[in-house]
Structures are given as C-alpha cells and as structure tokens.
C-alpha cells in the first residue's frame, strides 16, 4: 500500500471522481477527510468508505462549500484535529456553471463557477499551506478538466476556471518548491459522472451540437474508468512522486508510472505544462526577412 499512514483531504468527495479518489486512498492505507456541499450524500459516502476499512478510524467528513473561506478553514482545522496532521490535499470540487453563449448566460452563475472551481481550490491551498510549510512536506493535487488545454465553447466559465487552475498550480509549485511541497494538476480523462449528465440534459442548443454528440458517444461507450485517474492521484499523493511538481499529467495519455525514472529530465524541461506554441514548434519559419 503506497499511502500507508498518509492523511488527506478530498474536496467534492461524496460522489463521482472525488469518491473514487477517496476510495483508492483508503485502499492504499490513507486516512481521508471528505468535504462536499450535500451533507446527506457526504455522510452516506463517508459511511461506505469507512466500511471498507474495518477496525480503522480511516474516514471523517464535514459539509462545506469550498468557495466560502470560513467553511474551508473549518474543514482544515477539523481534519488536523482528527488526524493529528495532514499530508495531502486533493482539490476535486467543481461545477460546470452556466451553459450557452457568453453573452446570454447568467453572470452570477458564471462567477459562481469561477468561485467554486478556481477560488475554492486556492482557498483550500491557502488553508493547508501553513501546516505543509511548517512540516516541510506536502502534496497538492488539483483537478483539471475539459477546456484547460483547448477551447470549450458554450462552457466558458468551466473552461476558463480550469485553465486558470492549471496555471495557478504551476505558479504555486514554484512558490513552495523549496518547502518540499509538490503541486500537480491531473487530467482524469472523459468521465461518465454527473457533469456528463448535465451536458446531455442541457441539450445541443445550449452546449453545442459537437460537444453534445461527443458526450452522447462517451456515455454509450462508458468513458474513462474513474479508477484510472484515481490511481494517478494516489501516485501523486505518495512518496513515489517526490520532486515531481508543477505539471499537468494526463491519467490516460501520459506514462506517469515511469516519471520517477525521468524526474531530473522532467524538472529541467517544460514538459506537461501550459505554454505558448510558436511557428518553429510546428516546423514553420515565420520570421521577417532582414
């Protein structure tokens, strides 16, 4: 078990991918503190997870909205009190936000999506960082999503927030590198979760015909197994990934299990980061003649 004795917070851990991550963490020996907005579903999820670790005080939970600073502070305080410390933060809580052309969507809903997806993750990081800095170790895992590395028409709040979250992760990784804290973002793949159901319920007029059809096919084929991304999160939460930081890693497309062997090479490059593409990167010479 690669997470024996590890103490983690998983936001949005009452269902879908967050629950899958928490489940994998518990299976790997970790103690997990869950938070989510739906208290009833959260308690049910915590109970199910605890049943998977009989005899151990492995799971605690607290209802919280990650966009509310005082609620985030409470989660971290209670996790520290329950477990005697913290080693890992997984920022998974997220929403799609409004669907449709930017000029038509509700502005408050648009801002709400950024508050949850981006500001909520930043608040969680701010809350755990003093403890991580004091112990000179810690792992922060941010959940990326569709739109972080390519346009996502008609879901602009989600796309903007996820792209910003990846760049925040890169920036934070540089800030805390000397404190022994690793910060990475995860692209878990095309998941069949409640977000997919939201797209299908919204229909092609609101999310665009292309994305709707893509989502319909994804549902029919089953999507990426939740366990694929959960396994990557467990790796990034473990000592196996020590020194790997400031990256956006795809659970599906990247050979992440081999990254420890490429640690130095990775650190000296901009591989798995958000960067501007110039003509030379695509074999073109657009320089002006002298």
Write the layout of secondary structure elements.
Elements: E1 7-11, H1 16-27, E2 31-36, H2 39-51, E3 59-63, H3 69-83, E4 88-91, H4 107-135, E5 138-143, H5 156-176, E6 181-187, H6 194-202, H7 204-207, H8 209-221, H9 226-237, E7 247-250, H10 263-267
Parallel strand pairs: 1-2, 1-4, 2-3, 4-5, 5-6, 6-7
Helix pairs in contact: 1-9, 3-4, 4-5
Structure in words:
It is a single chain. With 290 residues, the chain is an alpha/beta fold. 46% of the residues lie in helices and 13% in strands. It is built from ten helices and seven strands. The longest helix is centred in the middle third of the chain and has 29 residues, at 107-135. The chain is globular, with a radius of gyration of 19 Å. The model has no long low-confidence stretch (mean pLDDT 95).
């Amino acid at each position: 078990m690669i997470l024996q004795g590890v103490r983690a917070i998983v936001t949005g851990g009452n269902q879908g991918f967050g629950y899958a991550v928490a489940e994998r963490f518990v299976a790997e020996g970790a103690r997990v503190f869950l938070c989510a907005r739906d208290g009833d579903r959260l308690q049910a999820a915590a109970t199910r997870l605890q049943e998977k670790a009989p005899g151990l005080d492995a799971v605690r939970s607290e209802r919280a909205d990650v966009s509310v600073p005082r609620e985030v502070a409470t989660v971290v305080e209670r996790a520290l009190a329950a477990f005697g410390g913290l080693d890992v933060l997984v920022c998974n809580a997220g929403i799609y936000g409004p669907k449709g052309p930017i000029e038509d969507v509700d502005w408050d809903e648009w801002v709400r999506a950024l508050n949850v997806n981006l500001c909520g993750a930043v608040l969680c990081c701010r809350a755990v960082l003093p403890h991580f800095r004091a112990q000179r170790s810690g792992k922060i895992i941010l959940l990326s999503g569709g739109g972080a590395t390519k346009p996502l028409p008609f879901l602009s709040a989600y796309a903007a927030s996820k792209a910003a979250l990846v760049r925040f992760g890169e920036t934070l990784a540089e800030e805390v590198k000397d404190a022994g804290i690793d910060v990475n973002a995860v692209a878990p793949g095309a998941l069949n979760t409640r977000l997919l159901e939201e797209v299908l319920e919204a229909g092609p007029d609101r999310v665009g015909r292309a994305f709707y059809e893509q989502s319909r096919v994804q549902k029919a084929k089953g999507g990426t197994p939740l366990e694929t991304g959960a396994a990557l999160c467990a790796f990034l939460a473990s000592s196996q990934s020590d020194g790997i930081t400031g990256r956006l890693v795809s659970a599906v497309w990247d050979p992440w299990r081999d990254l420890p062997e490429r640690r130095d090479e990775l650190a000296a490059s901009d591989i798995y980061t958000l960067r501007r593409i110039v003509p030379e990167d695509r074999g073109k010479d657009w320089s002006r003649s002298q």
